[in-house]
Amino acid sequence: MRCHKCQHGDTNVIESRDVASGGFVRRRRQCSKCSCRFTTYERVERPQLVVIKKDGSRELFNREKLIAGLNRASEKTPVTIMQIESLVDDVEQELYSRSEPEVPSREIGELVMNGLSKLSDVAYVRFASVYRRFSDITGFEKELAAIRARREKQQTKKRVKGK
Questions:
Q1: Interatomic CA distance for residues 55 and 45, integer angstroms
Q2: Cα 14 from chain centroid?
Q3: I need a labelling partner for 137 at 20 to 30 A (CA). Which of 18, 36, 83, 121 fits?
Q4: Are the C-beta atoms of residues 59 and 53 closer than 8 Å to each other?
Q5: DSSP states of 106-162 as a string?
Q6: Average of pLDDT values for 58-87?
Q7: 3-state helix/strand/coil string of 4-49
Q8: In this predicted structure, what is the pLDDT of residue 21?
Q9: Is the CB of residue 34 less than 8 Å from the CB of residue 88?
Q10: Contact by Cβ (8 Å): 90, 115
């Protein structure tokens, strides 16, 4: 690992820790030349997932692209970057657990929307509008009706538990 300050190629690991999510190892390093300290994160390299798009084309799964889309959908909502990262971690974990090298984009979208629906209704509808390519107000109305039904079901469960 090269030092980011002096570019010297010899660094020493001072401390190693598993990150809470379990998929990373956090390492504190120190350059043997300039004594600069810095942190690196290591993740197990997994085989690349290939996403099968709606038009039949294929491209490599891009975590950053998914995060960018979720960031756009959750602008001006209480959804934090940590929640987005956690959602993408969960989606990735689910995809890799299937042991399939190729995944239809539809399945990824459904996993994301399922997780996003628990974080923010507004972000969910924004993401759904792009993912499902709403062409008119009817698509929005259907999604809003589904959100209302889900809320009513949750409130009914809470009332039953409370009694």
A1: 29
A2: 30
A3: 83
A4: yes
A5: HHHHHHHHHHHHTT-HHHHHHHHHHHTT--SHHHHHHHHHHHHHHHHHHHHHHHHHH
A6: 95
A7: CCCCCCCEEEEEEEECCCCCEEEEEEEECCCCCEEEEEEECCCCCC
A8: 62
A9: no
A10: yes
Q: Per-residue DSSP letters for 31-99?
A: ETTT--EEEEEEE---PPPEEE-TTS-EEE--HHHHHHHHHHHTTTSS--HHHHHHHHHHHHHHHHHTT
Whole-prediction pTM = 0.66
Residue among 153, 102, 112, 103 at smallest CA distance from 132: 112
Place of tokens 């039949």: 56
74 pLDDT exceeds 90?
A: yes
Report the distance separating Cα 96 and Cα 107, nearest Å: 13
Angle between helix 137-162 and 121-131 (nearest 10): 140
Amino acid at 149: A
d(CA 118, CA 74): 13
Count Cβ atoms below 10 Å from residue 11 Cβ, excluding itself: 20
102 in helix, strand or coil? strand
* Residue 22: predicted pLDDT: 61
Q: 116 near 87, Cβ under 8 Å?
A: yes
